[in-house]
Automatic annotation (TrEMBL):
InterPro entries xrefs: CBM21_dom, CBM21_dom_sf, PP1_regulatory_subunit_3
One Pfam family named in its UniProt record: CBM_21
Single GO molecular function: protein phosphatase 1 binding
The protein, known as: CBM21 domain-containing protein
Gene Ontology cellular component terms for the protein in this record: protein phosphatase type 1 complex
Domain of life: Eukaryota
Domain annotation CBM21: ranges: 99-207
Length: 247
């Protein structure tokens, strides 16, 4: 049998080093505590769940004291939401303006306040003649109608006071009027003529507004402490009963 005596020649691949496998292997694993987001449908569950609540068979029992407290709180809140307030500063808060108004118009609103569900105050007029009539003309429906309320003469305890003093009291409606506002002016009839104090043509106003929007009472009543000290003939309120004197 013949034998192949051809010499074997190495190829370039024979000189390459054998392939080496890495000793360390790195595998990606989830970190401990890592969160994954999955949806219910991926687990074969429904995406929505409907729960129907039926009426309780046994009603919830609220103690009588709690019910009474809730009713009282609601009543107080409703009353506070509809309290009237004056939307003007009484002339007595500015003595010089009051005297100027009195000398020009022969009549001027002097003091005014809301007390006991009524509008009460005084008017000062120049003593033109003995026979005279002083009244408040009031409207609760934007002057579609009005009423005249006569003022009552009161004896002035301060000699030398400017003019005669008249007192008035006008009951206010239990419920706010539709416009939530009332207006009035002062009418003075004497010696065959009429004189008016209408707050320089703007009328005096009463507004029904929530308690939180009300101005402090001191802004309406006007402080007379300075007036009594600097101007001794400036009268002040001493109390009010029915339509009696304020002095």
């Amino acid at each position: 049998m013949p034998i192949d005596m051809t010499p074997l020649c190495p190829t370039p691949d024979d000189f390459l080093p054998p392939a080496r496998r890495p000793v360390l292997r790195f595998e990606r694993r989830a970190r401990p505590g890592a969160k994954r987001v999955t949806f219910a449908d991926q687990r074969g569950l429904a995406l929505t769940r409907v729960k129907v609540f039926s009426q309780l068979d046994d009603p919830v029992l609220i103690p009588a004291a709690v019910r009474e407290a809730l009713r009282s709180a609601a009543a107080v809140a409703a009353a506070a939401a509809d309290r009237p307030r004056l939307d003007f500063a009484p002339p007595s808060s500015d003595y010089l303006r009051f005297r100027r108004n009195l000398e020009t118009n022969l009549v001027s609103l002097e003091r005014c306040e809301l007390r006991g569900g009524a509008l009460a105050g005084t008017v000062r007029v120049k003593n033109v003649a003995f026979e005279k009539r002083v009244a408040l003309r009031v409207s609760f429906d934007a002057w579609r109608s009005h009423a005249d309320v006569d003022c009552v003469y009161v004896r002035d305890a301060f000699p030398g006071a400017a003019g005669d003093a008249f007192a008035f009291s006008v009951p206010l409606p239990a419920a706010p009027p539709p416009q939530r506002r009332a207006e009035f002016a002062v009418r003075y009839a004497v010696a065959g003529a009429e004189h008016w104090d209408s707050n320089h043509g703007n009328n005096y106003g009463i507004a029904w507004a929530p308690a939180w929007s009300r101005r402090p009472d001191s802004a309406h009543s006007g402080s007379s402490a300075w007036s009594r000290g600097a101007l001794p003939d400036w009268p002040g309120f001493a109390g009010y009963e029915d339509v009696g004197p304020y002095y």
